Structures are given as structure tokens and as C-alpha cells.
Amino acid sequence: RRKAGAELLDGLNDQQRRAVQHAGTPLLVVAGAGSGKTRVLTRRIAYLLAERDVHPGQIMAITFTNKAAAEMRERVVELVGRRANVMWVSTFHSMCVRVLRREATTLGMKSSFSVYDADDTRRLITLVSRDLDIDPKRYTPRGLASAISNLKNELIDPESAKDKAANDFERRTAEVYVEYQRRLGLANAFDFDDLIMRTVELLQTFPAVAEYYRRRFRHVLVDEYQDTNHAQYTLVRELVGTGENGLEPGELCVVGDADQSIYAFRGATIRNIVDFESDYPQATTIMLEQNYRSTQTILSAANAVISRNPNRRDKRLWTALGDGEKIVGYVGDNDHDEAAFVAREIDSLMDGGDTGEVKYSDIAVFYRTNNQSRVFEEIFVRMGLPYRVVGGVRFYERKEVRDALAYLRVLANPDDAVSLRRILNVPKRGIGDRAEACVSAHADKQRISFNDALRDAVDDKVPMLNARSRNAIVGFVELIDDLRGLVTDGHETADILESVLERTGYRAELEASDDPQDETRVENLTELVTVAREFAHELPPEDPDGDGDGAADEGLVEPGSLAAFLERVSLVADADQIPDEDSEATGVVTLMTLHTAKGLEYPIVFCTGWEDGVFPHMRALGDPTELAEERRLAYVGITRAQQRLYLSRAIVRSAWGQPMTNPPSRFLDEIPADLVDWRRVQPERSAPSAPTTGWGRRSFGGGSGGGSSAPSFGPAKGWKDTPALSLNVGDRVTHDKYGLGTVVATDGVGPRATATIDFGTAGSIRLMLIGSVPIQKL
Ligand code: ATP
Ligand code: MG
């Protein structure tokens, strides 16, 4: 059911309302965290559709993640009805893929192109630098890839890079860039950065194409504008236009917060926000000042930290939500102790504690880098806390999954050389390195694609190739052509994938192995088939391309098709894996990096690892620019919390297998002492007689987290200090929450001893860390 315009303005303050209703000139909404920027963007779209007679096909909205895009679309559909489904709401990358599918031939590519991710890119750069005789120790593929990425983010093409190169590294980079770009073309592939750069090229080189999109998208809206880079900035400008051919520029609305810019390493620049008014002279700026997310305590902490950054426009955020609870601070002896505290605290929050109903899905744990998740996972598994880690080694990065996808990509795009070379001899079929090198050299010499060179091998036109290799190649080419027949016959992706796993012998090989890892691999492949099956049965939008005719454009991928599936998997980002809130169940605790947390909110947040060298990151310690970026990351982290915030650090943390002693994060010093309730600071080692009753409670001055000058108040009631209960199979125990249970298995010793306990219907079977859960032996 559609909402009337007046209703669309409900639940907005005056400034938000102004932003929703603003018409005619470019609009910038700048405001601190939790002030409703994203809400304004969503409502504005609904308002355009309901009150200003804008057709949904005229709207392009850009969000930072696919998940955020899906949510925004859903919200708008709730507000104004299903017709809103045809809007373009997506990330920059997805939007560009869509444009490029349609316009590929204009750029000399085919619409069946592949999208290369970081791993594909590195592979191709490795091949290129090998062919160019570049010393991989001196110039690593990773280094080259990142240098080329930076050039692309600045819209510098290979020729200009060559002209600009001022030192040896830049000259080598430019050389690789030229050849890499040529190979991408031969492979009919775009890398991530190309998606943006080449779309800009398309719009700038072909005025008719640009005009088509400008006529079509009369409204462009961008969330998280502070994290756009130069290429994305230019893309937005090109889409909106400057009023050529009598066409009014499109209406632009961007929202952002310079204090939350945390992607400088990807070329993001707050210049785009700071200079908005000079870039768009007609621009109107609206500031929002009320925060609707967090308590005053949380907000004050965030403001205190961010105000230390130089050269920023100060904004005063306030909230009507009251002071709320104090921030809880904790200092662990080591990272395991810190994790145990988090787990224990979650357990007691779930028991009701003093907060009433809490669901696991209300809770998030943040850390600076992905590798910090491991200690949390260990303890969460032990304690039976349901959780989900977002990011890290992702499903789509697993070898077997990438292999299977490489087959599919080759079927969709025969020229995809990186995928082709990946599967050429996987599983082993007698096409060795030498044979591959012969084919590759032939491709290079003839300036043809690797695929064409393989076909030359079949015709015996590749020199130096022995008969056995040639036969193997003949077999491979036939297999691929057969499988490709399934695609042209319109089989479902899941069935094609099944055939690939079957006919290549890939699955059989894994099944025959007695390596337990291979068993997991088979499961992952089964999972991939399931993903493909579900994807094909997703409901397509009523009008796939949103131009109002109910049909897909020529060149646009068929919904549910192989190409659409590959597109989906190549563009998943970490943040897209964040579990949806499930109102029925109690859900799971979400673990993620601070970067991934941007734009999200949780009632309860644990921000961990506040140590100089961890957070702020080691490489920021001597660099004011990087330090300012880390501080913005702290601001992002703190402002995700709605009701309760925990800040913790460990005195000793293992890094690269070595224990490291890190001083408290300097950001802790920046938080006013009266906001934090330190549950535990460093226990004084030389005070064995200290009282041992429960938590030490006090406000800790300056938050330096308990240096050696801190008075002692005894050890915490943690697993470290609880005498290990000795349990055997068959013992009867009681648990404060789950009641009576029977030990069915035990494992580990000392503080790491675990027991598997059957609590019957009350709590089912749970694995618990004996020292850290409230159990008694009967
Ligand atoms: P961030 O900077 O973290 O991206 P944001 O500025 O985009 O934050 P939103 O996520 O849009 O903020 O809003 C924060 C929270 O406040 C959300 O839960 C939102 O629903 C709520 N909110 C926003 N505006 C209002 C309002 N006028 N009345 C009540 N709640 C609001
Ligand atoms: Mg937002």
C-alpha cells in the first residue's frame, strides 16, 4: 500500500524534512553518525516517487554495499509499493557492470565479459611481469597491483602513466600497466577498478551514450559520499551532466560525514565532500545535528575522540536518548583473556542481567584486522555462543569454489584467460607447465587470446608442443565445448555446475581422497550448487532494466542466468555477508572489522584490541595522516553502539606467533574518564593479598587503562582465576541458566578444559569452557 506524501515526512525532524523535499539544485547533507542520513536518502526516494511524479526508472541510488542497496530498495518498496523495484539501487561497481554489459561493444569488448577480482588481478599481473622479466622480489605483484589500482582510481590511463613516470618503480609500473590492460582486453575482462574507470571513459568519449544515461537518470543519490574516490566522483559528475544539449542537469543528492572517511587506502578522498559547494556552485547544504542512534555517553566519547583530529569542521551532535549506561572498560592479561571477558559478558547479557531481553543478534564484536577474530571464535565455540564472522577467508575465496567458478566463467566468456589457465590442468589431465608456456608464447607472438592459441594447438599450429600435450589439449577443448553446449541450450546454472563437477572428474577426485579437508571441499561445492539453485529461483524484478517496458534491454543479462550468477558472486563484499536480523530466533553475534561496520548499528557493541600498534594500527603510529584516519575509524566504531559500549584491550597479544606487549591505545586517553567504568585494569602482580571479591569497580582516571601506577584491586573473576573444576564423563552438574545436566565428553586441561554437557530439553547439548561458565558439580 502506498503512503501519502505527508506520511512520508512523518518521523523526520525539520532539517531532515527539508532534505527530503528539496528540489531543483544539487543537495549535500553532511552530518555526524546516526543523524539519519541514510534514512533521509531512503525517504527522499520514496517522496520523489509519491509526490514529485518521478518514474522509478529515473532513479539511480548508490550505496556502499549490496546489502545496504537491498535494504534501501526494500524500504522504498514498503513505502510506495512494488513499482519501486525497477529503480537502480546498487553499489558503484554493480551499477557500472550493468552499464558496461549494455555498452561493452562501444568499448571494443563483448557483453559476456568477466569481472576480475583482486586474486584474478594478481594472477594476471604475475603472468605479465614474468613475461616482462620483472624481478618479483623487487617489484611484487601485490605492489604492482596496488600501484595500478591507484592510477585507475585517479583515472590515469596507461599512456599517461608512462608519460608521468618519474622513477624506476613508476616506469616499471607503467610498463606492466600497459601490458596488463592489453591482456585484460584480450581476455574480455574488466578488473574492479576498470568497472569505474572505463565507465567514465565511456561517458566521456561517447556523448550520445552519456546523453542516453543523463536523459534516463534524472535523479542520482549517493550514500557514504565521504568514501568516494576521484574516479567515482567523476562518474557521478558525468551521470548528472552540466546541462548540455538543452538538457537540465540531473538532480544530485549526496549524504556523508567527513569524520567517517575510512577508505583513503582505496583512494577515497574527503575532498569530494569538502569541495562539494565549489564543484557544484548551485549546491545547497543541509546539516543534521540530532543523533537518533546512541546514548549521550556513547556520543560524548565519540565526539571527544574525533575532536582531536586536525582540520575538521566541528559539528555538535546531540541526542534526546539520555545518558544511558556508562561505557564498560576491560583490560585483559592477554588476547584470550580479553576474548573470554567478551564471551562471558555476552553470556550474562543473554541471561537477562539488568537489561532485560537481549538477543544474540543485538550484539556485535569489532576488531581492527581480520586475524583478530580467531581468539573470539575459539572461545565462542567452546562456550556454545552462536556467532558469525563477516569477512576473513570467504566462501568465494576457497580454492575449490574458485576452481568451480573458473569453469563457469570460461563457459560464459571463452576468452577469460586467467580462469582458463587456472583450470587448464585442474584436475590433472596432462597439460603441464611446459605445454602451457608453449601456448602462452604462441598467443603472445600472434597477439591472440590464450583461448585462440589453445585452438591453434588443436590444429597443430603451436610450435614445440609435443604430441601427448597436444592430445590432452584436444580433450580439454572438446570437454569445454561440450559443457558450453549446456549454456547455449539454456540449462540452469546449478545443473551446468553439476555437469562440470561430474564430467571434469573434479568431484570424483576429491571424493576418492582420504584427506579430511577434501571432504569439506566436497561440501563447499555442494553448497555452491545450492547457492546457484536458489539464485535461479529468486524472483526477478517486474521490469528487469527499469525502463518501463517490462523487458530486459538487449545485452543486459537475463535474470537468473549463468552470467547473472557470476556477476552476483564476483561482486559480493564482506559487508554483504552480515546476517539478516531474524525476529523469531535469537540470531547470532556478529564479528567483523571496524571497516565493515560502517553504516550499521547494534544495541550492544564490543570494540576490542584498543592498543597502540593494533588500533591505531602499527603503520599509523608515526604518521599524522594515517593516525587521523585511524581516529575516524574509532569514531565509526564507537558510533555503531546504540545502548551499550564496551572497550577492551589486552596487555599481551600474540602476533605472528610471538607475544607482544602493547601499550594502551592513545584513543582511550582521549575518552573522558567519567564516561568509562573500568571493570578491570591491569592486576598488580606483586599484590597477592589483594581482595578477591568480584570485579574491581572504579572510574579509571585518564583511561590509560591501568599502567603500573594503578592501585591494585585484585584479580578479576575470570576463568584464569577460577580453580578448574575437574569433570568426568557421567558427572552430574548444574548450570545457572540451563539447570541440571550430564557430562558427555571432556577435552583439554587447565584453563582450557572443556566439557560437553547434555542439559536435556532446557538447553540441549552444549560445549563449555569449564572455568568460565557458572556450573557446579553435584
Ligand atoms: P551513519 O553515519 O552511521 O551512516 P546515518 O546518519 O546514516 O548514520 P541512519 O542510519 O539513517 O543514520 O539513522 C540512525 C538511526 O536513527 C536509525 O535507526 C534511524 O532509523 C534512526 N532515525 C533517523 N532519523 C530519525 C528520526 N527523525 N526519528 C527517529 N529515528 C530516526
Ligand atoms: Mg548511513
From TrEMBL:
<keyword id="KW-0238">DNA-binding</keyword>
<dbReference type="InterPro" id="IPR014016">
    <property type="entry name" value="UvrD-like_ATP-bd"/>
</dbReference>
<dbReference type="InterPro" id="IPR000212">
    <property type="entry name" value="DNA_helicase_UvrD/REP"/>
</dbReference>
<dbReference type="InterPro" id="IPR014017">
    <property type="entry name" value="DNA_helicase_UvrD-like_C"/>
</dbReference>
<dbReference type="GO" id="GO:0016787">
    <property type="term" value="F:hydrolase activity"/>
</dbReference>
<keyword id="KW-0413">Isomerase</keyword>
<dbReference type="GO" id="GO:0009314">
    <property type="term" value="P:response to radiation"/>
</dbReference>
<dbReference type="Pfam" id="PF21196">
    <property type="entry name" value="PcrA_UvrD_tudor"/>
</dbReference>
<feature type="region of interest" description="Disordered">
    <location>
        <begin position="683"/>
        <end position="717"/>
    </location>
</feature>
<feature type="binding site">
    <location>
        <begin position="31"/>
        <end position="38"/>
    </location>
    <ligand>
        <name>ATP</name>
    </ligand>
</feature>
<dbReference type="GO" id="GO:0003677">
    <property type="term" value="F:DNA binding"/>
</dbReference>
<dbReference type="Pfam" id="PF00580">
    <property type="entry name" value="UvrD-helicase"/>
</dbReference>
<dbReference type="Pfam" id="PF13361">
    <property type="entry name" value="UvrD_C"/>
</dbReference>
<keyword id="KW-0378">Hydrolase</keyword>
<dbReference type="GO" id="GO:0005524">
    <property type="term" value="F:ATP binding"/>
</dbReference>
<keyword id="KW-0347">Helicase</keyword>
<dbReference type="InterPro" id="IPR005751">
    <property type="entry name" value="ATP-dep_DNA_helicase_PcrA"/>
</dbReference>
<feature type="domain" description="UvrD-like helicase C-terminal">
    <location>
        <begin position="296"/>
        <end position="599"/>
    </location>
</feature>
<dbReference type="InterPro" id="IPR013986">
    <property type="entry name" value="DExx_box_DNA_helicase_dom_sf"/>
</dbReference>
<dbReference type="GO" id="GO:0005829">
    <property type="term" value="C:cytosol"/>
</dbReference>
<dbReference type="GO" id="GO:0033202">
    <property type="term" value="C:DNA helicase complex"/>
</dbReference>
<protein>
    <recommendedName>
        <fullName>ATP-dependent DNA helicase</fullName>
        <ecNumber>5.6.2.4</ecNumber>
    </recommendedName>
</protein>
<comment type="similarity">
    <text>Belongs to the helicase family. UvrD subfamily.</text>
</comment>
<dbReference type="GO" id="GO:0000725">
    <property type="term" value="P:recombinational repair"/>
</dbReference>
<dbReference type="InterPro" id="IPR027417">
    <property type="entry name" value="P-loop_NTPase"/>
</dbReference>
<feature type="compositionally biased region" description="Gly residues">
    <location>
        <begin position="699"/>
        <end position="708"/>
    </location>
</feature>
<feature type="domain" description="UvrD-like helicase ATP-binding">
    <location>
        <begin position="10"/>
        <end position="295"/>
    </location>
</feature>
<dbReference type="GO" id="GO:0043138">
    <property type="term" value="F:3'-5' DNA helicase activity"/>
</dbReference>
<keyword id="KW-0067">ATP-binding</keyword>
<dbReference type="GO" id="GO:0006260">
    <property type="term" value="P:DNA replication"/>
</dbReference>
<keyword id="KW-0547">Nucleotide-binding</keyword>
